[in-house]
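Sequence in, structure out. Go.
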Amino acid sequence: MRVVKTVAELRQQVKVWKSEHEKIVFVPTMGNLHAGHLALIKHAHTFGDKIVCSIFVNALQFERDEDLQTYPRTPEQDIEALESEDVDLVFMPEHDEVYAEKHKPKNVIPKHPINQELCGEYRPGFFDGIVEVVARLFDMVTPDVAVFGEKDYQQLVIIKLLVEDLSLPIKIESVATQREEDGLAYSSRNAYLNPQERTKARHLHAALMHVKTQIESGFKNFEALEQQAMGQLSLAGFQPDYVAIRDAVDLGNPAYATDSIVILGAAWLGKARLIDNLLLQMR
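Output:
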């Protein structure tokens, strides 16, 4: 496995692989890898020949500087884990390397209203920061396929829009949310939970599961279900930002003819902001 820190080194290796007609699969991460990340990499192997993984903590995704400074970083363990998963190249650039003016995407990136909704409402600029860095990484890696997790469902929808907007020849593949035994979705921010909070954390998944069960039983008052779930989370000790039921394709308000929906939730528990979602086929 090769570890590179500059765009020049990255592009040189990718150029060689492409000259050999190798299919490139890209898995972008912010490091502090857990079982959820490793599932993405396992999935990536089914879509191509060479796996490129990036480890880059994007400062534009953090609203508060203290959150950026305390974000868990485990580079040595990450490299060891990626090597065990047969990753071919790890791209670990510094901030100035990624954001150098010469690496700015040539095309203007449209800003969609969905960037400001759901998590975007509570984390201003968050998705704009994600789109900016992912567009740069796509231009640097030039992958044939990129793999993202469904746990960050709004991000997944926004990345698909980015690829469509820029007419990028990249296929976006998604992997189902990976969970611990009690249902809590794997996340780097789970490290912020103390033992008591970790015990409570399962209630986020449970609240969304209750909404799903109600819908499956025929209850269609989505607004009432959202409010009920918010109340459940508050009683469990969370500070909920939202619970929302949306169309799974574009995150719009679900219409009668919607084929699939997604139930999304975000809530604070101590210092950790936890997110989760559940997909549901309507017909």
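Check: The chain has two domains: 2-175, 188-281. Strands lie at 2-4, 24-29, 50-55, 89-91, 145-149, 171-175, 239-247, 260-269, 272-281.
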